[in-house]
Amino acid sequence: MINRIDNRMIILFSFLLTALSMWQMTQFSLQMGMMPVVISGLLQGFGLGCTFVPLAIIALSNLPRHILTQGTAIRSVMRNLGARPLLPLRSAPHPLRSMPGCRRDWRCATSPHRAPGSFPHSHIRAEHAHVNINE
User: Fold this and answer.
1) Could you state, in order of their start, the residue ranges of all structural domains in the chain?
2) Smallest Cα–Cα separation from 5: which of 57, 45, 60?
């Protein structure tokens, strides 16, 4: 298929497929079933998978055979160095994960079966909540 269809068209199709899956993910809610998650995950995986093979072919197609191995190595190193600044963002602690007992309480707070006006912590009540808007 790579030889018959222009690589740029394959990359365009894969970006559109990935964009469709991202749009589907914006429609997620707590009351939805499992199938929207599965379908959007499959579309995203297929779209991103179809992106990188044509990109590698385009990047390495003009290299002579005797330096193709070095070109592949340099491309791999540059790809890893380009992703390096994003790694701390993925592994940074989330504010909700840093609070003790938050996972259990967060699930309780977002449950559709939670009674209106109730809080996950028994010592917090609505009448004790104070917000200072002058700060």
Assistant:
1) 7-115
2) 57
Which two three-digit tokens encode residue 57?
Answer: 């072919």
Angle, vertex CA 113, rays to CA 107 and CA 117, nearest 5: 85
User: CA–CA separation, 97 vs 69, rounded Å?
Assistant: 44
Give the span between the Cα atoms of 88 and 32, in whole angstroms: 31
Rg over alpha carbons for the chain, rounded to the nearest Å, is 24
pTM above 0.85, yes or no: no
Alpha helices in 5-116 (DSSP H): 7-26, 35-60, 68-83, 87-91, 102-109
Per-residue pLDDT tens digits for 30-80: 888 999 999 999 999 999 988 888 888 888 888 899 998 998 899 888 888
